[in-house]
Amino acid sequence: MAENFKLDIDADGIALVTWDMPDKSMNVINLSVIEELSNIVEQVAADAAIKGAVIASGKDTFSAGADLTLLEGLTRAFADMAKKEGEEAAATLLFSESRKLSQLYRRLETSGKPWVAAINGTALGGGFELCLSCHHRVAAENDKTRLGLPEVKIGLFPGAGGTTRVARMLAPADALQFLLKGDQLRLARAKAMKLVDAVVPAGELIKAAKDWIKAGGKPKAPWDVEGFRLPGGQVYSKAGMMTFPAANAIYRRETYDNYPAARAILSVVYEGLLLPFDRALTVESRYFAKVLRSPEAAAMIRSLFVSMQELNKGARRPADVPPTQLKKIGIIGAGFMGAGIAHVSAQAGIDVVLIDRDQESADKGKAHIHKSLTDAVNKGRSTAAQRDALLARVTATPDYSALAGCDLIVEAVFEDRKVKAEATAKAQAVMPDAIFGSNTSTLPITSLAETAKDPAKFIGIHFFSPVDRMMLVEIIVGKKTGDAALATALDFVRAIRKTPIVVNDTRGFYANRCVLNYIQEGHLMLQEGIPAAMIENASRMAGMPVGPLSLNDETALDLGLKIVRATETDLGPQAVNPGMKKLLEDMVEKHSRLGRKNGKGFYDYTPGKPKRLWPGLSELLPKTLTREQVEAIDVQELKDRVLVVMAVEAARTLEEGVVTDVREADVGSILGFGFAPYSGGTLSYIDMMGSKRFVELCQRLEKKYGARFAPPKLLLDMAKTDDRFYRRFPPGKKAA
Questions:
Q1: Are 607 and 598 in contact, with CB atoms under 8 Å apart?
Q2: How far apart are CA 117 and CA 138, in angstroms?
Q3: C-alpha to C-alpha distance for 89 and 98, rounded to whole angstroms
Q4: CA separation (Å) from 133 to 148, 196, 277?
Q5: pLDDT tens, 422-454?
Q6: In whole angstroms, what is the distance from residue 357 CA to residue 188 CA?
Q7: What is residue 1's predicted lDDT score, i.e. its pLDDT?
Q8: Reported CATH class of domain 328-504
Q9: Is residue 591 annotated as part of the catalytic site, yes or no?
Q10: Can you state the angle between helices 691-705 and 682-689, rounded to 10 degrees?
Q11: Which pLDDT tens digit goes with each residue over 719-729?
């Protein structure tokens, strides 16, 4: 009995296959879907009365792709069989099971009956691969529709025939760019690329799809027609030789060969274009099974799909607190961060009161939003009407009385206790019972809450810069923070479509404790005489999106100096590295180098030109190495240092109870500071290496470079049995 699909055959003999999974907001591909669709394909193929078929969705979107827990199950089955029957038997099982969807789509494509995909909304991953296997694709006009194959972003690649088909629909350079970037296309772009054949008004979608069949639509894909020519020509041609060597070089430059799935895409496209279509599909399936077995794919799927979904759905929200419907919020501080928070809040349909010390400052914050929205309009990503409607939700004012009626107040003023206390007092004079969130980078929430009327309603809501692009929000629970404040903060983060992690209070919380170690390691390497370019390049080779010096420029050197001085004031001079402090003082106070915001930091930023390392940097450093000494530097050790110094700090936060859920440590590290995504995050990086080996590496680095690499007791205990974090602290089970 079919549960996921409904089959209707009209008087013209055209089957309408409606995909509408019960109890799910979006259609996803699982084992039952594969089985049911396979039966329908065979029914359509065998019934002479059926002239063709249209597959459509009964939901607002077409399909979100495969249920990746299905793939997680396959990797577990592989591991179990490998133990019982050996690697060869397990590999055979994984290959045969992982290619079932690819074989189903090929059967549909060669069934002898024309199939049309009627795309009524977003179609991604395996859902879009289904569309590509159809003989014709019609999409309903919808500005929200996105089409794409984003698998590479979670450590996989399109393995249900998508890679092989795209490589025959587009020139190789275009196919590789589409597959390796994993972009989601708007309809106009998809049609221009001929990935969609027609775009029609929504009310005419099914009719247009059926009309194509009635008009004699052929049941053959272009590559199954005799005489088919590859769009970009043969691999071994002048065009091919201009594409593949360059693509390989670009891949190496961008990934440093850290991503097996990206490497597999290059191989599948290159090898597949040398083979007949069905042989090419087999090659694709073999690479897919290989990538699926990789630790990188397992870690990325777990962190960037499974864990992210669970956190986004409210895994950490107190269950007994009713949901908060946020209609109006107040934001104190209209600077870069405050304006960014106002922007994403208004974008979510929330009315915003944006407050600063005077009207000019408040207006400047709103003007920043206006500029950002206008840029989007100029690039065709929005309309002037949408921009104006969003801006209408933002009230810029110096008048705190405008906060009346706010469901939440977020303070985003300077990282200064006195300034924050003043803002809190003024806001609570108007709204004494409102939930109050502080967007502080490092200052402990418990101490900031001392100035609040009710510390139970005070919570940290730490955004990352730039707010509109960074997906993480760190929710910090103080010692007296209540469940109502936590629930409201999480409801707010969900409303603005960000991913939350919940951490307990400490200086620097979770993300900044780790990332400040990264920045500090870059400073310490500089003081050792290691060239700045080598530090930056080794960090990128390790998997970081930018080097520590570049990151410091982005976060602002003067903010870094403020954090160092605030830490020294609160904890004493032993709590800060004197070399790091002196370097920041020299950069900020002697040379006015504040970072990207004023065009001068560790790099020089000239409009219209690539950034360049500041030539004067070497004059501020206590040591310079000779050429021979530089050539003797162990690059692998540099890579280890930048990752280990963050990962070991993440382990400390878990031991101390700052982070209490392994999912949040991993997701937070990738979304918050870009920790080597291929590793799955800080704790997955340790798990991938094994706690025993990681502790040995920590101890080697500690002996050579100091106590910052010392493994905490938790790791030492785990190393005795080579334990793993995800085994010791299963997701959802609190670590402390």
A1: no
A2: 6
A3: 14
A4: 14, 12, 13
A5: 999 999 999 999 999 999 888 899 999 998 999
A6: 45
A7: 53
A8: alpha beta
A9: no
A10: 110
A11: 999 999 999 99
- Cα angle for residues 621, 546, 561 (degrees, 5° grid): 50
Q: Is the dihedral of CA 394, 397, 398, 403 positive or negative?
A: negative
Residue pair 600/592 in contact by the 8 Å Cβ criterion: yes
Contact predicate 142/268, CB 8 Å: no
Is the C-alpha dihedral spanning 424, 428, 433, 435 positive or negative?
A: negative
Tokens representing residue 621 in the block: 């450093």
The per-residue pLDDT for 160 is 97
Tokens representing 572?
Answer: 């004493």
Residue 87: which residues within 8 A CB-CB, separation 6 or more?
none
Both tokens of 244, joined, read: 């593949």
Of 134, 136, 148, residue with least CA distance to 198 = 136
Query: Which parts of the chain have pLDDT scores under 70?
Result: 1-2, 733-736
Q: Residue 503, exposed/middle/buried by CB under 10 A (0-12, 13-18, 19+)?
A: buried
| pTM of this structure | 0.91
Give the pLDDT of residue 2. Answer: 67
> Using omega within 30 degrees of 0 as the cis cutoff, is the peptide bond preceding 466 cis?
yes
Query: How far is residue 387's CA from residue 393's CA, in Å, rounded to a whole number?
Result: 10
Structure tokens at 474: 């760190």
Structure tokens at 157: 């690649």
Q: Give the integer Cα–Cα distance in Å for 694 and 724.
A: 11
The one-letter amino acid at 662: V
Could you say which of 368, 370, 462, 523 is catalytic? 462
Instruction: Tell the CATH topology of 5-293.
Output: 2-enoyl-CoA Hydratase; Chain A, domain 1 (3.90.226)
Question: What is the domain partition of the chain in residue ranges?
Answer: 5-293, 328-504, 512-555+562-580+626-728
pLDDT, tens only, 579-620: 889 999 999 999 999 999 899 999 999 999 999 999 999 999
Res 542: pLDDT: 98
Rounded Cα–Cα distance for residues 580 and 427 (Å): 37
**Which fold is adopted by the domain 512-555+562-580+626-728?**
N-(1-d-carboxylethyl)-l-norvaline Dehydrogenase; domain 2 (1.10.1040)
Q: Report the C-alpha gap between 374 and 483 in whole angstroms.
A: 39
Which three-class secondary structure state does DSSP give residue 105? Answer: helix
